[in-house]
Design a protein that fits this description.
Layout (H helix, E strand, L loop, with lengths): L2 E6 L7 H14 L4 E6 L1 H4 L6 H18 L8 E3 L5 H11 L3 H5 L2 H9 L6 H4 L1 H10 L5 E3 L5 H17 L9 E3 L31 H9 L16 H14 L1 H12 L5 H27 L2 H30 L5
Bound molecules: tryptophanyl-5'AMP (TYM).
Length: 329
């Protein structure tokens, strides 16, 4: 059976970008593939969270994963830092990654721009750690959103390079996987760019009904089209993208026709988006509350996930050590 791995950094709550970009695919894939999902807490260290932050965020993300429908019996969930073998593979991959190519990664360049006082080495080698997460499991498919495409290319590059350097056919090249058949970039409610925690433009899975409605009703729009079949400006295109994700293709087409006929009323479209978002989120919200108060269950899931992931990781590391020329330990 094909193997699937994917992870999310525990920095705050899951938002609709995470959900439509990745988690929705996870949930669908767990029935058809050999899946594992993890919480990328090592990756979150690039922003120097406090110990309290980390503990809380890991629990939060785990509760939210479960609330979205990931079933740990089908798809074990583990915390990245529980599987120490990943660090060893990270080190090996670092030795074969070159400064120039790491500096050219778009998300690194963005971080340099956004947080010039904290350009740490972990940021630079972020793609190596991500590749270690993936290659460790010899994953065939990795469900991710569009923003992870470049990191996925790096993972494939590192797999090929390792094979070439050691003259083996060991690591497979993992494919990005999108349930919607194309990569999703979920836009933010401010009409620009992508939905993201640091952008402050998110709809969170745990937002209550009033907050969801308020955020959607306030989403940025314009005065409306002034010509028939007018091309949509970016903010409006983004609203339509969100509408299609939340309400489905038919609803988006209906509003698209109204737009083309210059009869669109953004308020009506937003009302439907708010109602459908609340219908989607209400049961998730309820389950988040239930799971997040059950520490014993969360601990058990993390422990069992870690055991399964570590067993697989140990096998990979033994093989990799042998390929590289290290003694068996
Ligand atoms: P992270 O934590 O930023 O995001 C987690 C997942 O959510 C998707 N996502 C989005 N998709 C579409 N539109 C958006 N606006 C949006 N915002 C977030 C991301 O594409 C991602 O799939 N580097 C990863 C975590 C990671 C990982 C891995 C993923 C570490 N190791 C190995 C896969 C495999 C990250 O920072 O995702």
């Amino acid at each position: 059976m094909e193997r699937v791995i994917s992870g999310i950094r525990p920095t705050g709550n899951l938002h609709l970008g995470n959900y439509f970009g990745a988690v929705k695919s996870f949930v669908k894939m767990q029935d058809e593939y050999d899946c594992m999902f993890f919480i990328a807490d090592w990756h979150s260290l690039t922003t120097h969270p406090t110990p309290e932050n980390i503990r809380k965020s890991v629990k939060t993300i785990l509760s939210e994963y479960l609330a979205c429908g990931i079933d740990p019996e089908k798809a074990p969930i583990y915390v990245q830092s529980d599987v120490k073998q990943v660090l060893e593979l990270y080190l090996y991959l670092n030795m074969n990654a070159y400064l120039g190519e790491l500096e050219r990664v778009t998300s690194f360049k963005e971080k340099v721009r956004k947080q010039p006082d904290n350009v740490n080495a972990g940021l630079l080698t972020y793609p190596c750690l991500m590749a270690a997460d993936i290659l460790m499991h010899k994953a065939d498919k990795v469900p991710v959103g569009k923003d992870q495409e470049q990191n996925m290319e790096m993972a494939r590059l590192f797999a090929r390079r390792f094979n070439r350097i050691y003259n083996v056919d060991y690591f497979k090249e993992p494919a990005s996987f999108y349930f919607a058949h194309k990569a999703v970039k979920v836009p933010g409610l401010d009409g620009t760019g992508k939905m993201g925690k640091s952008e402050g433009n998110c709809l969170y899975l745990c937002d209550d009904e009033k907050t969801v409605t308020k955020k959607i009703m306030r989403a940025v729009t314009d005065q409306g089209p002034t010509q028939l079949n007018q091309e949509k400006p970016e903010v409006i295109q983004n609203l339509f993208t969100l509408c299609e994700l939340i309400c489905g293709k038919d609803a988006a087409e209906y509003y698209n026709d109204l737009y083309n006929n210059m009869q669109i009323r953004y308020g009506d479209m937003k009302k439907q988006m708010a109602a459908d978002a609340n219908a989607l989120l209400a049961p998730i919200r309820e389950r988040i509350l239930a799971y997040s108060s059950d520490d014993a269950l969360l601990d058990r899931i993390m422990r069992q996930g870690a055991e399964k992931a570590a067993a697989r990781a140990e096998k990979t590391i033994e093989e990799v050590r042998e390929i590289i020329g290290f003694r068996k330990v």
